[in-house]
Amino acid sequence: MLAQSTPVLVLDEPTNHLDLRHQLRLMAETGRTAVAALHDLNLAMEADQVVLMTEVLAPAEVE
From which residue to which does any coiled coil extend (predicted)? Predict the structure, then answer.
């Protein structure tokens, strides 16, 4: 359980070191909007909206 009960969470690698099944479970249980920096594209593709950023290219939205 997260300590704060804010409507929006800003997270950096919130599910690092978890397998995909547990990552999805944790993200589903929050019940809140989350803005997360992720390196795991499998988890990112489960999101409602993704913004992909690289060092070379400008951000691109992926639906």
Answer: none
pLDDT in tens, 24-54: 787 777 677 778 888 888 778 888 888 887 7
2 is a domain residue = no
Q: What is the DSSP string of 8-60?
A: EEEEESTTTTS-HHHHHHHHHHH-SEEEEE-S-HHHHTTSS-EEE--SSSPPE
| Beta-carbon contacts of residue 19 (< 8 Å; ≥ 6 apart) | none
CA-CA distance, 54 to 9, in Å (whole number)? Answer: 23
- Structural domains of the chain, count: 1
Asked if the structure places residue 46 within a domain, the reply is yes
pTM of the model: 0.56
